[in-house]
Amino acid sequence: MEDFEQLYCLYSKQLYKYLLYISGDKYLAEELLQETYYQALKSIFRFKGDSKVSTWLYQISKNVYLKHLTKERKEKLISMSETKDLVYSKTDRKSVV
């Protein structure tokens, strides 16, 4: 676990700056940084050493951000769909009355 703490100390500031740059939101960047390290901890056994640790962490952070965008878009589409259904249901009731 000490090794993982060292990874955090070595790369967290750089990763935060990268996530802040791509997200444009400091709170989101902090959340994504936490998720990056969580995913890294979960998948540390898959790291083969073919690349630098920093490269591996940046790739994880990029994927975490892309996953966040995908989830955000899905939520937006669902929200728009629900709003559309409400509008149609209100107009349908008016035409029936």
The geometry reads as elongated
**Gyration radius, to the nearest Å?**
20 Å
CA-CA gap between termini: 67 Å
Overall pLDDT level: 87
State the secondary-structure class: mainly alpha
Q: Please write the string of helix (H) and strand (E) elements.
A: HHH
Main β-sheet description: none
Poorly predicted parts? none
In total, the number of strands is 0
Helix content: over 70%
Task: Please indicate the percent range of residues in DSSP E strands (runs of 2 or more).
Answer: under 5%
Number of helices: 3
Give a short synopsis of this structure.
It contains three helices and no strands.
Report on the structure:
The chain is an all-alpha fold. 86% of the residues lie in helices and 0% in strands. It contains 3 helices and no strands. Helix 1 (2-23) packs antiparallel against helix 2, helix 1 packs across helix 3 and helix 2 crosses helix 3. The longest helix has 44 residues, at 53-96.
